[in-house]
Amino acid sequence: MIRDICRDESFLAQKAEPAAADDLGTAQDLLDTLSAHRDGCVGMAANMIGVNKRIIVFDNEGEYMVMLNPVIVKKSGAYETAEGCLSLAGTRKTMRFQTIKVQWQNERFQTRLKTFTGWTAEIIQHEIDHCDGILI
């Protein structure tokens, strides 16, 4: 189901709760909502649709990917950039990393570990910031 975008900064600033099996519907709602906003959005976190769970979805080189309970375990190649967000007005400067290693669970709650680089890494970092209650 396509959900409304949350713009309540006090809600967005909360640290997300871990995702569990009964949150898979939220993951699907995120995918549906991201797809509906594909022209101006490349990733979303659950709090952007009003759900305080650690779930992100993003465009992974042309295919949407879901991460449950993602955590960055390694990062390198710091750089400064400016990013926009559907939930926040304008663009904001932030620090990102060119290469990140992420641990997460897939939709079967199997633990995965993968290194991402470039634009995909930047998207993931933005969405994990949402999970951590960080407003860029």
Précis, in short:
This protein has 136 residues and is α+β, with helices and mostly antiparallel strands. The chain contains three helices and five strands.
Notes on the protein architecture:
The protein is α+β, with helices and mostly antiparallel strands. Helix content is about 25%, strand content about 40%. It has three helices and five strands. The protein has helices at about 10, 25-35, 120-130, and strands spanning about 45, 55-60, 65-85, 90-105, 110-115. Strands 1-2-3-4-5 form a five-stranded antiparallel beta sheet. A hairpin with a 2-residue loop joins β2 (about 55-60) and β3.
SSE class:
alpha+beta
* Average pLDDT reading: 96
- Major sheet strand order: 1-2-3-4-5
* Number of distinct beta strands: 5
Write the layout of secondary structure elements.
Layout: H1 9-12, H2 24-36, E1 43-45, E2 55-60, E3 63-85, E4 88-105, E5 111-117, H3 118-131
Antiparallel strand pairs: 1-2, 2-3, 3-4, 4-5
Defining traits:
136 residues, alpha+beta, 5-stranded antiparallel β-sheet, 5 strands, 23% helix
